[in-house]
C-alpha cells in the first residue's frame, strides 16, 4: 500500500515540476531536447529564441538524470526498504519504470503533445509541429536503462542499511 502511494505521489510530483517548468518561451527552452527535431531547428534559427538556446550533451543529461533519480528513488524506497539486494532492487526498478511509463504515456503522449503550455510563441496554433513522438520514445528507451542502473545502485545501498 505504501509502495503504491509513494509511486502515485512521485508521478504527481514529477508532473507538477514539469508543469511549473513550462508556460513561457524561456522555461520551454530548458526542455528543448524533448521537442521534435524540426521544431528544435526552427527554435535555433529564430532571431529571438536562437541566441537563448543552451545545449547540453546527451551523456551529461543522462548522467545528471541518473544521479537525480538515483537519489530520489533512494529516498522514496528507504521508507519501504526490505532486507537484501533483490527485494530492494525490484522495488526501485518497478517504481522507476512506472515513473518512466507515466512520463511517456501520460505526460508526453497525452499532455505534452496536446497542451498549448509547451508551445513557443508563434506556434500556438500549429499542433502538428509538436506531434512527432520520436524524441519522447528515445527518452523512454533511455529511461528504461537509466532506471535499471538506478535500481542496481539503490538496491545495493538499501541492502546495507
Model description:
It contains six helices and no strands. It is mostly helical and 161 residues long. The protein has one domain. 21% of the residues are buried.
Residue-averaged pLDDT, rounded?
A: 96
**What Rg is obtained from the alpha carbons, in whole angstroms?**
17 Å
Order of helices and strands: HHHHHH
Using DSSP, what is the number of strands? Answer: 0
Poorly predicted segments:
none
Largest sheet: none
User: Percent of residues in beta strands?
Assistant: under 5%
> How many helices does DSSP assign?
6
Number of domains: 1
Q: Would you tell me the structural class of the helices and strands?
A: mainly alpha
Share of helical residues: 55-70%
Q: What is the terminal-to-terminal distance? A: 22 Å
- Shape designation: elongated
Topology, pairings included?
Layout: H1 2-20, H2 25-29, H3 37-45, H4 58-78, H5 85-111, H6 134-159
Helix pairs in contact: 1-5, 4-5, 4-6, 5-6
Keywords:
161 residues, 0% strand, mainly alpha, single chain
In brief:
The chain has six helices and no strands. With 161 residues, it is mainly α.
Amino acid at each position: 500500500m505504501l509502495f503504491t502511494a509513494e509511486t502515485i505521489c512521485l508521478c504527481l510530483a514529477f508532473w507538477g515540476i514539469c508543469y511549473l517548468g513550462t508556460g513561457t518561451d524561456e522555461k520551454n527552452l530548458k526542455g528543448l531536447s524533448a521537442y521534435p527535431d524540426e521544431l528544435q531547428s526552427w527554435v535555433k534559427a529564430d532571431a529571438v529564441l536562437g541566441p537563448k538556446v543552451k545545449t547540453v550533451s546527451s551523456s551529461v543529461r543522462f548522467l545528471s538524470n541518473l544521479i537525480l533519480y538515483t537519489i530520489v528513488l533512494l529516498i522514496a524506497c528507504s521508507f519501504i526498504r526490505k532486507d537484501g539486494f533483490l527485494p530492494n532492487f525490484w522495488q526501485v526498478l518497478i517504481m522507476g519504470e512506472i515513473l518512466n511509463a507515466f512520463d511517456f504515456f501520460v505526460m508526453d503522449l497525452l499532455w505534452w503533445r496536446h497542451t498549448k503550455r509547451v508551445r513557443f510563441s508563434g506556434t500556438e496554433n500549429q499542433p502538428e509541429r509538436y506531434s512527432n513522438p520520436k524524441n519522447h520514445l528515445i527518452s523512454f528507451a533511455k529511461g528504461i536503462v537509466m532506471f535499471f542502473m538506478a535500481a542496481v545502485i539503490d538496491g545495493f545501498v538499501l541492502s546495507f542499511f
